[in-house]
Amino acid sequence: MQDDEKKGDPVKYVEALLSLRDKYQAIIEEAFEGDKSFLNALNGAFESFVNDNAQSPEFISLFVDDQLRRGLKGHSEDDMERLLDKVVMLFRYLQDKDIFEKYYKQHLAKRLLGARSVSDDAERSMITKLKHECGYQFTSKLEGMFLDMKMSADTQDAFREKVLQPSGSSKIDGVELGVHVLTTGFWPTQLGPRCNLPPQIARCCEAFKDFYLKQHSGRKLTWQTNMGNADIKASFRARRHEINVSTHQMCILLLFNGCDAMSYAEIAADTQIPPAELKRALQSLACAKFKILNKEPKGRDVDDGDAFHYNADFSAKQLRFKVGTVSATKETEVEKAETRQKVDEDRKPQIEVSLLPTMCEGPRSESHSPPSPPHRQAAIVRIMKSRKEMDHNALIAEVTTQLQARFHANPNAIKKRLESLIEREFLERDKANWRKYKYLA
Q1: Domain with 21 in it: what CATH number?
Q2: Number of domains in the chain
Q3: In terms of domains, do 115 and 14 share one?
C-alpha cells in the first residue's frame, strides 16, 4: 500500500485503497459477522492513513476523472454505480473535502468542454452522491456547469438560426464556430492568457459576440482561449489529415500558411501567447508523438533560441487524430502551492460565513452571475448570537464541528477570523476574562 509507485500514480493509488478496503471488509464480514466495532475500527484506520497522504483529495479526483474518461467504457450501469459508491466511501474519509471539490471542478470542466466523458448518467450520478454526502452548497457549482452546457447548446442553435442560416452557410470565412458560454463563479476559470487570434477566427468571434450581447445586454464576454480546441485540415506531401488541436496550437500552425520557417521569437511576437503556454504548445507540435513541425536544434525541450519548420514529410496512419498538450497528470509543486493558496482564501469566508438555502431563485436569463442566497450569517456570529458569551476553547470547538463537513479547520485560521470580527465590532473580549468573547448586537 505504501509502495512508491502506487503512491505516485493516482489511479494505482486509489485502486490499491479500494482493493485493500474490500479485502478487510470481506474478512470482517466472514470472520466476525460484520461486527460494528470492527467496522468502526476499519473506518477509523482508513480515515487516518487516507488523510496522512496530503495528495489523497487530488488522487481520488484524478481516479474519478480517469474512470469517467475511459475506465467505465463498456461497463454496465450496475458496475458503474458500485464503483462510484466505493469512490464516495473514500471521499467520506477525507477531512479536507473542499480540496477534493477544487480538483473535481477542474477535472469536470475539462471533461465537459472537451466532450471527453463516457457517460452523462455517470457524471450526474456522481454529483448526486456528492450532494447526498455534503448537501446542495457543495454541488451547486457543479450542477451549474451542466446547466451552462445545456444553455450554451441552445445559444449555439439560436446563433446558427439567426446569423448563419440567412447567409446560406454554417460558416464564417470558411470557419465553423462553436462557443460555450460559461458563468463566472461556476467554472474554475480565471482571466486567460492573452492570445492573438488569426484574423478569420477573430471575425467569427466578433460575429458571435455581437449576436450574444444583443440578446443579453449588460453582460461581458471574455474569451478563454486557453480552454478551447479546434479541428483543422492540413495538407502534407503524403496525404491530408484532419487534426484536433488546442486553440493555442491552432494559432501557431496557421502562421505556417504564409511561411515554412519561423523562430521562437517570431511565433511569440505574432501570437502573444505567454512563454510557459507557448513552449508547451510548441513542444506538443514538434517534440511529441505527432511531429507536425520540425525543431532546430533537435531535443525534447523548447528554448528561446529555437527555430521551427513546417514538416512537409509528416505522415500518420490515422486520417484524423488529436494532438495532446504536453502536461503532467499531477500538479507541479508550483501548481500545488497555487491550489493550496486558493483553498485557504476560500476558507476564510467559510469560517465566518454560512450560506443559507435560497427559497426562490429568479429566472436564469435575468443575470449571468451565480444565484446569491438572500441572507448570509457569519458562522461564528451565528453561534455567538445564540450563546451571547462563550469561552475561547468552546467557541473554537463549536466552529470546528460546524465546518468539519467541508474541511478540517486550523485553529489558528479561526483565531484570525475572530480577530477580524472583533476589529469589525461583531464581537468583543470580556474585560474581566480576555479568553471569553461577547456578542455585540
Answers
A1: 1.20.1310.10
A2: 3
A3: yes
Single-letter amino acid, residue 107: H
The number of residues in the chain equals: 441
CB 109 within 8 A of CB 145: yes
- CA 20 to CA 255: how far, in whole Å? 53
Closest C-alpha to 64, from 17, 14, 30: 14
User: What does the DSSP assignment read for 29-90?
Assistant: HHHSTT-HHHHHHHHHHHHHHHHHSTTHHHHHHHHHHHIIIIITTT--HHHHHHHHHHHHHH
Euclidean distance between CA atoms 353 and 380, whole angstroms: 8
pLDDT, tens only, 278-316: 999 999 999 989 999 999 999 888 999 999 999 999 999
Q: What is the mean pLDDT of residues 74-92?
A: 91
In the block, residue with C-alpha cell 488541436:
245
For the beta carbon of residue 223, count every other beta carbon within 10 angstroms. 18
Give the count of beta carbons closer than 10 Å to the beta carbon of residue 83: 19
**Residue 105 identity (one-letter amino acid):** K
In a domain, 172, yes or no: no
Query: pTM of the predicted model, to two decimals?
Result: 0.73
Supply the range of the domain harboring residue 354. Answer: 333-439
Residue 117 three-state SS: coil
Residue 358: predicted pLDDT:
29
Q: What is the C-alpha separation between 286 and 354, in angstroms, rounded?
A: 50
C-alpha cell at 215: 440578446
Same domain, 337 and 326: no
**Grid cell of 386 as nine digits:** 445564540
d(CA 199, CA 22): 57
325: domain CATH number is 3.30.230.130
Residue after which a domain boundary falls, among 134, 161, 181: 134
